[in-house]
UniProtKB/TrEMBL annotation:
It comes from Wuchereria bancrofti. Keywords: Disulfide bond, Glycoprotein, Repeat, Signal. Residues 40-217 form the Laminin IV type A domain. This is Laminin IV type A domain-containing protein. The keyword Lipid metabolism does not apply. The keyword Glycoprotein applies. It comes from the Eukaryota. SMART domains: LamB (SM00281). InterPro entries: Laminin_IV (IPR000034).
Length: 217
């Protein structure tokens, strides 16, 4: 679709980034309606990190907050006691250093490790319960005041390590989950990324949860 040449080895004038894995060969240009012409930049991604976090479900606790119809843990301090949850999961909010204009992060990755322990039963690295896993998204992006995109992996990773690609094929719209997300939607969300929420709890009960996070930008 987006390639030219006898060997289909070049992008046409309205696309860029020739890739074997791309069924169209090249990616359509999207420049926020300013132009239809684009070229591939020479930028490279850098990896940024957030501090590790830990929450313990025991008194004296602090209550989580409600935001975007989610139960959201407090961003600070990095280690604190939270009010326990039921089967409705809690979500970690990522710090402001991950937000703002992240259009250059398109096709990059968010990597994180989640760990749930059950100290009451003396069990560490509790595997997520697949029954509850699929009913709540694992990660949620909120952008430009109106776009909410969700990602739910196909299967549980027993190690708790995940690598989520910032590509439209990996996301669904909360408002229209049956309609495929377009590159335009994702780019508009990344233009003003206002929130990233990562699911913190995968089991009930959990007594201790950890988060390690990195982001390619």
């Amino acid at each position: 679709k987006n390639v030219i040449g006898l060997k289909c080895d070049s992008c046409d004038a309205y696309s860029f980034s020739l890739e074997k894995s791309n069924i169209f060969g090249c990616t359509d240009c999207f420049c926020f309606n300013r132009t239809n012409f684009c070229v591939q930049s020479s930028f490279v991604w850098q990896q940024i990190y957030a501090s590790d976090r830990q929450v313990i479900f025991s008194e004296p606790w602090k209550y989580y907050i409600r935001k975007h119809n989610l139960n959201v843990l407090r961003e600070k301090p990095l280690i604190y006691n939270s009010y326990p949850t039921d089967i409705t999961p809690l979500y970690w909010p990522l710090p402001s250093s991950f937000l703002g204009d992240r259009t250059a992060s398109y096709n990059g990755f968010i990597r994180f490790t989640i760990k749930n322990d059950d100290n009451y039963r003396g069990i560490t690295n509790v595997a997520p319960d697949p029954q509850h896993f699929r009913f709540f998204p694992q990660i949620i992006l909120v952008g430009n005041h109106r776009i909410i995109l969700e990602h739910t992996p196909d299967e549980v990773n027993q190690s708790g390590r995940y690598k989520i690609r910032l590509h439209e094929s990996q996301w669904r719209s909360r408002l229209s989950p049956d309609v495929p997300v377009t590159r335009k939607q994702l780019m508009i969300a990344l233009q003003n990324l206002q929130g990233i929420y990562i699911r913190a709890t995968y089991n009930y009960p959990s007594t201790l949860i950890f988060l390690k996070i990195s982001f390619y930008i």
